[in-house]
Design brief:
Number of helices: 12
Low-confidence stretches: 1-6
CATH class of the largest domain: Alpha Beta
Radius of gyration: 44 Å
Mean pLDDT: 79
Number of strands: 7
Helix content: 55-70%
Largest sheet: 5 strands, mixed
CATH topology of the largest domain: Heat Shock Protein 90
Distance between the termini: 68 Å
CATH superfamily of the largest domain: Histidine kinase-like ATPase, C-terminal domain
Structural class: alpha+beta
CATH architecture of the largest domain: 2-Layer Sandwich
Number of domains: 2
Length: 377
């Protein structure tokens, strides 16, 4: 059984600063011990016994002298560049001096010589090289680890932000879908009840052929509606096709009393619009203009593209009731449309209604001009 977990050790080594520091210390000073030992052996050819104790002691003293430097250098990261460099040079030079002043007396003691103080400059310059090299390695390793840590933190932050963004987009998408479905399906029962009531009235009037024709048209409309049950935008051409299935039912009901006029530009037919966006407007006109007037009425629709906007206009000739009553009676369906436009386009749309002196009602709508990807040449 392998009791040494390599991954756990490296994780501990990466997270534990003290363990990492002393590991580098022992490794570095051990390497320095070997280098100085073989240097003495090469230069002296024959190394004396006291050299062993001196080399060992100088490395122990060097390890102890560099230990305070760690604490000093750690605090130096709070300083700006020039003060930090000045502190590093002063501290490393000071402890190089301390190391030199400790090594020479020990060497004199173990070697039983008394003239080593004459070589103080050489010993001190050598100590400066060692301590400056140690300082350079310390900061190189420290900055590497900090860079690595910041990189990992940045990756983790990006990952968390991306995950949060995906969750937020998913939640917004689900909320948007639910809201659009709710708003859209508020429209269908209202139309269905009106049509069934009209069919019932035709049956009571013994106009069976008209009732049968309207039933077939209603079946066709509902089948098309279910087959295209989507909250996605559809082309205006498809929306008009769906609208005509509805208007054919009403044509059967109103006959000559209903006059329809359409002026749709070719570019406008390709534009994407929210599905079932036109039906409630026409339904309002049928109820408050055509049905409420003895002579019926006209509903006119225009669609044009200008300044990268799709501009829709639906007007009717109004009824015999006054303009204020007309405006109040049409509120529910139009409010539904405006809510749907707000969900889809946020603020990038306009939706206005107006009533003229003859109680004729007008709806003006402007939305961004967008086409399906397969329509882009």
């Amino acid at each position: 059984m392998n009791i040494f977990n390599k991954d756990l050790f490296f994780q501990l080594f990466s997270d534990n600063g003290n363990l990492r520091f002393w590991s580098f210390q022992l490794f570095g000073w051990s390497a320095y011990l070997l280098v100085t030992f073989f240097s003495f052996t090469y230069l002296e050819n024959e190394i004396a016994s006291y050299h062993y104790s001196h080399l060992l002691m100088q490395n122990v003293l060097g390890l102890l002298c560099t230990w305070p430097l760690r604490k000093i250098y750690h605090r130096s990261f709070k300083l700006t560049v020039l003060p930090q460099i000045s502190l590093v040079l002063f501290s490393s030079s000071f402890f190089a001096l301390v190391w030199t002043c400790l090594r020479i007396p020990f060497y004199i003691w173990v070697s039983e010589t008394s003239d080593k103080w004459d070589e103080f400059n050489g010993w001190f310059y050598g100590a400066l090289f060692v301590f400056w090299s140690w300082s350079g390695l310390y900061f190189a390793i420290k900055y590497y680890l900090l860079h690595q840590l910041r990189g990992e933190q940045l990756i983790e932050e990006i990952s968390l932000k991306r995950e949060e963004q995906l969750k937020r987009l998913k939640a917004e998408s689900l909320a948007r879908e639910a809201q659009l479905q709710m708003l859209r399906y508020q429209l269908n029962p209202h139309f269905l009840f009106n049509t069934l009531n009209a069919i019932n009235a035709l049956v009571l009037l013994k106009e069976n052929s008209k009732a049968q024709e309207m039933t077939q048209q209603l079946s066709q409309f509902l089948r098309h509606s279910l087959d295209n049950d989507t909250i996605e935008n559809v082309s205006l051409e498809d929306e008009l096709e769906m609208l005509m299935l509805y208007l054919n039912i009403e044509k059967t009901r109103f006959e000559e009393r209903l006059i329809l006029e359409f002026e749709i530009d070719d570019d406008a037919k390709k534009a994407l619009v929210p599905s079932f966006i036109l039906q409630p407007i026409f339904e309002n006109s049928l109820k408050y203009a055509v049905a409420a007037s003895e002579n019926g009425g006209t509903i006119r629709m225009t669609a044009q593209v200008a300044a990268n906007k799709l501009n829709l206009s639906i007007t009717d000739t109004g009824s015999d009731i006054n303009a204020e009553e007309t405006q109040q009676g049409r509120g529910i369906g139009l409010s539904n449309i405006q809510k749907r436009l707000e969900v889809v386009y946020i603020t990038d749309y306009t939706f206005n209604t107006s009533v003229d002196d003859s109680a004729g009602f007008s709806v003006q709508m402007s939305i961004p001009y967008q086409v399906a990807s397969n329509e882009i040449s």
